[in-house]
Amino acid sequence: MTKAVATNNVSDVNYHENSFEIFSLIWLGINVDMKDYLGIQRKLRTIINHQKKFQDGEECRRYIETRSVQASIVLIVNDQLGIEFIPSIHELRQVLSIHVLCKTKSSEEWTRDFPKVKSVVTDLDEVFCNMRLDHQIQRKTEPLIISTFSTFDDAGKSTTGINGQFIFSQLLIDCILRINSNEMDKTELMSYCKNKYENNKSELSNILEFQEHYFSNKAIWWYSRECFFYKILNASLRKQDIHIMFLYRSFVSDIYGLLQNHQSKVPVKVYRSQLMSLAELEDLKQHIGSFISINSFLSTTKQRQVAIFYMGDRVNLTDSVQVLFEIEADHKVVTTKPFADISTISYFPSESEVLFMLGSIFCLDNIICGDDQMWVIHMTLSSDEEHALREVLTDMKNSNGNGETSLRSLGKLLWNMGMLDLADKYYRRFVNEISLNDPLRMTLFEELGNIASQKGDYDKSIEWHKKALDVQRKNEIDEII
């Protein structure tokens, strides 16, 4: 593999190796004046915060291959290295788009065979302009986070794992949104955001603006804006980062309230496009007639041609296909998961965007490949009162109880799902938040002891049960007195 000329500036762009956003930017073999480089780097971080730099093409390829298939990598590469490198990584699902930097536009000819190459430029400022436009489209086509609920047994194949994930995602959303928010958690979230965007002046400015000017009626305005608020929330939903989802709960509740207030009053037909692996498509085909939960907010457009435009050039890949979701939604079936045309409350009021609440449930009606070789996935918004769903959703609601939930509710849910470390974390958090005289302390200590025992930490289990006994004895003495 061809190597670019080495420089002494290898690590200066390697921000946040453990990326907390969905998108990452890789520089390969780009050698420019340091002053110019740092300037464009800062500008590009307003689009994609996480950046990594390579000089060795083989090392870069190995790095990309080790990333999750859910990664979304944007690549900037010089033309000399790119002519060999791009063919080797073009079909990797992790690679979303490529920008080629060259001395002349002569490279445009050979790049025509590679649809992921979005621009061939001679100036890094051109890269910034092209990437900003391209990124606005990429945001509209991010892969959905889907859980499936099967109501039938496919030739004896167990559906326990499939349905378990569906139920857990619904329970988790329901539980978190009903936990009362407090300023301490909001402060923790802002501290987290500031830490993650350290040295990113643009996003730190956005965070300060958010802290000073956020109101609940602007929640969707902030969510639709290209900034930290959307980036971290969507990444936490995609990665199922439960703690960040927990810290965001107040703002997610604000989005929910706005969707309720602006709930569509007429049935709608909306569209969304994305790249999907063949394995994911085949899995969905096996569940036609089943219910699916979208475990993120679902952004759609009323205009079919707009969704197809967002799809971009038809890319022929060996393991992925471009699909179009065609969704019908009747406002009359909505009970707990609203949807709304957000044009009047969005950062981009000109877009005909319809946003569905986090955790919306759809019936997977059909999947067909049209004459134009485009896969179309037909779905219909489902009601909680659907016969096949009613029983399981009722059980879910009973599990979380009515009214406000608590950190104990969240801890119990995680405990039941086998997430013992997280369960322990929220039980401890709850213990630290309640009064020393709270009658629930003894029960919490007992349950922490049981969690520790299941983790195999028997010394800690004994310690928690001793604390429970101490509380019991104190209560008995208080009763005598």
UniProtKB/TrEMBL annotation:
<protein>
    <submittedName>
        <fullName>Uncharacterized protein</fullName>
    </submittedName>
</protein>
<dbReference type="InterPro" id="IPR019734">
    <property type="entry name" value="TPR_rpt"/>
</dbReference>
<feature type="repeat" description="TPR">
    <location>
        <begin position="442"/>
        <end position="475"/>
    </location>
</feature>
<keyword id="KW-0802">TPR repeat</keyword>
<dbReference type="Pfam" id="PF13181">
    <property type="entry name" value="TPR_8"/>
</dbReference>
<dbReference type="InterPro" id="IPR011990">
    <property type="entry name" value="TPR-like_helical_dom_sf"/>
</dbReference>
